[in-house]
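anyone seen this seq b4? input:
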Amino acid sequence: MPIAPDRTRVESIFIRHRNTLMVKANFTDIFTDYYLHLSDQKIKHTPELDHKLKELLVALTLHSVARPWSEVHAWTANLRAPRVNFFATASSTHENTVGRLFTEDVREPPQNLLYTQVTEPNREPRRSTVALETSEPFDWVQHYYRQSEQRPGKIFELPEEDFVLLAAQPDYDEEWFENLTTEAVATFDTTEELSPLENRAFHFHCGCNLNRIMPALAVWKDKLDELFQDAEEVIVQCPRCGAKHPVTRSDFS
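predicted toks r here
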């Protein structure tokens, strides 16, 4: 299937004789769209939090391609220090990845926790909670794969914003996998026997609009004076991307 020019190609490749799945992509275009979104919404993050959110977008996008097409994945990381929630979601069928930070009114957890949810059509969502040992998103992937996937998984960052996820399959080469380095991953094209499987397409996109926001405000329909007080409008943020949507009384009619 051809990849549209405004989408990022995410490649799924099987490493023969190692029984390992490799998922890789260049994230320059996704990062560009992410920063354009922040600029449009006048959202500013500290460099540290910005870097972690980008890594979470990378991790969840690659992980989604390692899973069946129909699954929609959403991860929320609740950290103690800094006290912040990271959220990201990715869908192969909708060709999108999106995420945001929550820095206000964040509940302090007893320890760093990762909440994951997988949804598929006509099935109940599957949820899990993973205790995190660090505040680094690529470490979260290893914790998640070890505890929820019951197999090893690692992400490597290569030059020029290329990223690679390696997910072990049954009868994988344990010693080889355990001792992999970034330098070794960068040479797979010449050192390993690779079998391309499929390509999927992604871009940074939420798709939120007022019609999608209003159902969440239904509880205020009979309490408009309390909601608006003396204001002509209130601003509601999208829980997925942080986009700001003005809401007026007439929107409830």
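The chain has two domains: 8-204, 210-252. The domain at 8-204 is CATH 3.55.30.10 (Hsp33 domain). kinda curious what u guys think
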